[in-house]
Amino acid sequence: MYTLGEIAEFIDAKLIGDANIKITSIASTVSAQNDQLTYVVNKRYKPDLIASQAGVVILNDNLLSDCPTNALVVDDVYLAFAKITHYFKKQVTHSTGVHSSAKTNNAKIADGCVIGENVVIGQNCIISTHSSIEDGVTIGDNVYLHPNVTILQGCSIGNNVVISPGAVIGSEGFGNARDQQNHWHAIAHLGNVVIGDNVTIGANTTIDRGTIEDTEIHDGVRIDNLVHIAHNVIVGKDTAIAANTGIAGSTILGKRCMIGGMVGIVGHLNICDDVIVNAKSTVDKDIKTPGMYTGIMPLMLHKQWQNVGLWLVKLDKITKYLNVKLKNLKDQ
Amino acid sequence: MYTLGEIAEFIDAKLIGDANIKITSIASTVSAQNDQLTYVVNKRYKPDLIASQAGVVILNDNLLSDCPTNALVVDDVYLAFAKITHYFKKQVTHSTGVHSSAKTNNAKIADGCVIGENVVIGQNCIISTHSSIEDGVTIGDNVYLHPNVTILQGCSIGNNVVISPGAVIGSEGFGNARDQQNHWHAIAHLGNVVIGDNVTIGANTTIDRGTIEDTEIHDGVRIDNLVHIAHNVIVGKDTAIAANTGIAGSTILGKRCMIGGMVGIVGHLNICDDVIVNAKSTVDKDIKTPGMYTGIMPLMLHKQWQNVGLWLVKLDKITKYLNVKLKNLKDQ
Amino acid sequence: MYTLGEIAEFIDAKLIGDANIKITSIASTVSAQNDQLTYVVNKRYKPDLIASQAGVVILNDNLLSDCPTNALVVDDVYLAFAKITHYFKKQVTHSTGVHSSAKTNNAKIADGCVIGENVVIGQNCIISTHSSIEDGVTIGDNVYLHPNVTILQGCSIGNNVVISPGAVIGSEGFGNARDQQNHWHAIAHLGNVVIGDNVTIGANTTIDRGTIEDTEIHDGVRIDNLVHIAHNVIVGKDTAIAANTGIAGSTILGKRCMIGGMVGIVGHLNICDDVIVNAKSTVDKDIKTPGMYTGIMPLMLHKQWQNVGLWLVKLDKITKYLNVKLKNLKDQ
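Structure tokens for the assembled complex are given below, as produced in the milestone run.
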């Protein structure tokens, strides 16, 4: 908990408001309450700002007149946000063995596992060798963690979940603000990963925690090996994701989707329910209609591909050129 | 071991046959013996069914008249198969340290490694820190396991094998049956991973175990980092596979192939010997002729790519349109 | 340390020179000193050979007359080099807990971590559960290693570095020489990984050590999850690399680049400063001009893609055919 006076100092901001007000956490502009801090990066979010019930908002001078509450005025809002997140990040206890405050029921916990403060584990769980479960993690009933699984602080796992070896749940999201010297400043990710019931997660798969809100894996989801799921992604009920696939930040996948192997889905997209994406395709725009989608270059003999490639990069020129030629010919 | 009566109850099947017959394991329709269970998903496998020596076959009513042995009749064969696999999956012992039944010869085993029941390790092996070797694993001579390697139950490793940190051998395959409510039911994978001699496996690579039969990595194979090899894949002798590549289930790679980085090979394919696939290509059909293959989109300035992309998605329309135009012009 | 006589025997070479000269290590042809061994694979490197100050050079008979120093003449230079590297590879100690020679300052080291011989750790570091730090590793101040991180022998990490769970630093490079029977012979990688200050490395990411010289990650670099960085890659200052990306051996990335997710960059390339590569693109040639680059197939309905694909593989034939047609028409 910090006062507005302290926060203004931490991020070198001009405070418009009461320096004694106490802030307990960070929240989105829409959900923040009067003991929470939020930020508004640009005018697109002006309506949210006007309606915000936050205790304080980090913003630019040009949005100050629209701020209904205390303001922290800075030049680079995103950078100031990145810096302040670190003050609200909980430190983990780095326990030895099973922490005395952990409730592990009848779980079989292999020797050498580390279970942090206030962890709660349900009935009939198996925690295999060399697993690390940090403070505040909640695990449901009938959960099987294979060896070398890492679940970072505060994440929660539902019932009947199987997590394969080497999977990482709750790693930091890849969010960084860049300053004027082109140096990156990491955002401390304060959200968690929330995994529903009947989920399976593959070997060496990584699921990042959310920035402020949570990354969500809904009931019945199947995730294969070496999949990357970024911060704030939401994977809808009963969706299956094959190996080597990556889903970038804040994308929302619908229910019952089937995502093939090594598919890349860029960030901030909405994929509707019942979408099939074939292996190796790239999804770079919203999908609003259920169906099967593909976007890959067909395989050819290398020699053939070289010839095709030569024309492919000129495809716009070819079509223009042919249009003119055809037009000219027609006009003759 | 279960009786047919018990199995019929487990999967809610109508048993045609003797309820007292005992089944010890699951096998393919072709290889199953009279104490084994198998399943036939559709009419394509009718010849195998007719010739099968299995103790019992899970099948649909419409194949019942072709069944030469006991039958378990269900509506959804694949789903019933998925459910019954779990009854035949061995539980691991979750040992502490080196299990008393393990034979480790003169292996250097780092503190904190866990070695399960009936593990056999050959001469001159090094098992580095935080490695987990589950029950029944067999390891040859001169094997070097780097830190954090996981080898799951029943897998076998040949001589002179090097496994890099974080690699996972024998994780569950990504096989799931979907019920009428679109919920996924995992298949318990009962096959193993069998790795030959003189193989190297890269860091954080994952190799899934087979469904019923084994996943096979033959002698002399080289596998780089972060590669995914799915259930029942066979990688032929002296083949090399570069980083980030994924090979989907049941695909067979020939000998002496060189698979570039981040290549995706879809499932159930046959790739012949001496094939080179360039980095980032997608292999979506059998390859029957040795040679070098490529299938990638050339890199362009983003602005140029946007123009090319516009026409690319219309390529079939362009060719049709031009054909008509040309024809019309010619007819003038 | 070996004499030239011993080395000649190890790799079955004809020695031209003094069998008693002692060789302490391996170096590049350009940097090797008189107690070091180097190798020259073909005539392209003749100028380097002529200028070399190495103690001995492995080479073919046809380059012998240009060799200014002792020579080890073999038929297959690369294979002989692969074999000799193993003699110069240091064995690690496979310690238990923290080795007595390690200097760990005030680091918080979780139970079960293994810290090797002569490791040096700076001020205020946190080494989480199940981390393995091999002999000779150097770690700066304020470094945070999450659980299950592996840092292999001799690598060095700067100040203010965060390494996410499951990351592997210093795994063996994927370099292999093939003999006449098509068997692969691994090169023992003798270089290290050198990571600068203010770097973050994502979960389950792997960074291979260099062959002779080091793999370098410069100050301020950000690397996301499941990224593969091969031997001898150099990543320039303040460059950011998103998840699932792979960079092949010896490629040099400039400063302030932004590499999207699941990008593949082939080996031995030079990418200049300030390059943006969009997600899923393949970089297969040098980039000499700053800017934004893309190379992906657009996503389509599968049915549409099938039609486009049919023409795409014939694009060179279409353009040739149309040119003829157009020419013929014009000539009429």
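Residues 12 and 74 of chain A are 8 Å apart (CA to CA). Residues 315-331 of chain A form the longest helix (17 residues). Further analysis is deferred to the final report.
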